[in-house]
Amino acid sequence: MTRTLAALAAVLLTAACGAEVAAPRAAAEVTVTNCGERVAYARPSRVVTNDTGITELMFALGLGDRMAGYVIPAAAKSGDVASSPWKADFERVPHLGEKIGKELVQGAGADLVFAGWNYGFSESTGFTPDALADLGIATYQLTEACRNGVGEQRGIMPPLDALYTDLRNLGRIFGVEDRAERLIADYQKQIADAGKLVKEKRPKVFLYDSGLDQPFTSGRNAAPQAIIEKAGGENIFGDLDDSWTTVGWEAVVDRAPEVVLINDYADGDASTPEQKRAFLESYEPLRDVPAIREKRFFALPYAALVESPRNPAAVEAFARFLAGA
User: Fold this and answer.
1) What are 49's strand-pairing partners?
2) Burial (Cβ within 10 Å: 0-12, 13-18, ≥19) of residue 284
3) Are residues 127 and 238 located together in one domain of the fold?
4) Which of 11, 75, 97, 285 could make an SS bond with 313 (beta carbons 3.0 to 4.6 A apart)?
5) What is the reported pTM?
């Protein structure tokens, strides 16, 4: 069976419970750099977030009381939310709906929307920072999802730097800089401690998100790049200057991964880790790929594989797997 580590949840729960949360300072306008632009923010008090990891960034900073609510698919409530160290926050803060849109955020009285490109923002739906600015609603864009100037490719800095950048920016915007710095220091220590498990030989790792005809995977700008690298592996698509992207099965075969890291959406449909593994093992072109032949699979939750405060614990969990594999 696909292996997962309960240690991921245990480590996160330890960090989430008993954390001392600093009270936000009095309101003041601050300016931060978001996706390469200097943006001024008045202190928001009715934030709407989109997606699990983005919402957990607010919760990790103790900012649930500054939120009007969050938007996630219903399936995520029985998956990622159920396993979240911030489950109690998810229960306290209103779940506004499954799909974000202008009417939803206006109805919630939002004064800031925290989302990202392909994490809510999309030209195809007309839900963009520019469209919200026209409505008088401020936006903060997830740094992992910032576009890098090449078409719709995303990612402007290494994934963990993106996490720390967002924590620091949010800390300034909401007046909880000390809390942000404590979190960053804790995360950096957790990742450094995980590095002590890393062996000299770094196995080649294929991140399998989804896709039958073509696999969806991680380039060097998405969180799996940092998780794989810091845990002691090598992302076989770490040369791609993008975050989440589609490749071909031929490229997977050519790069001969030794481990498959599966994105577990925990949504109960035909994309469970077991079903993904069954497909990979039955797909004839992959028959001689070392990871498939030697049955080396590991799964991590979706919310641990996108930019989120679960990333450091994911590094530790995957490092323990690679060290014992």
Assistant:
1) 70, 114
2) exposed
3) no
4) 11
5) 0.89
**H runs (alpha helix) in the chain:** 7-16, 52-60, 74-78, 87-92, 102-107, 129-134, 159-174, 177-195, 223-231, 249-255, 273-282, 290-293, 302-305, 311-324
Give the three-state DSSP class for 31: strand
Are 171 and 216 found together in one domain? no
| 151 shares a domain with 228 | no
Q: What is the dihedral of CA 256, 257, 263, 268, to 10 degrees?
A: 70
Residue 184, pLDDT > 60, answer yes
The answer to whether the beta carbons of residues 269 and 248 sit under 8 Å apart is no
pLDDT digits 0-9 by tens, 48-79: 999 999 999 999 999 999 999 999 988 787 78
Q: Are residues 202 and 172 in the same domain?
A: no
Q: What is the DSSP letter of 127?
A: B
The amino acid occupying position 107 is G
Residue 15 is predicted with a pLDDT of 46
CATH number at residue 59: 3.40.50.1980
The whole-angstrom separation of Cα 189 and Cα 288 is 38
Verify that 153 and 34 share a domain, yes or no. Answer: yes
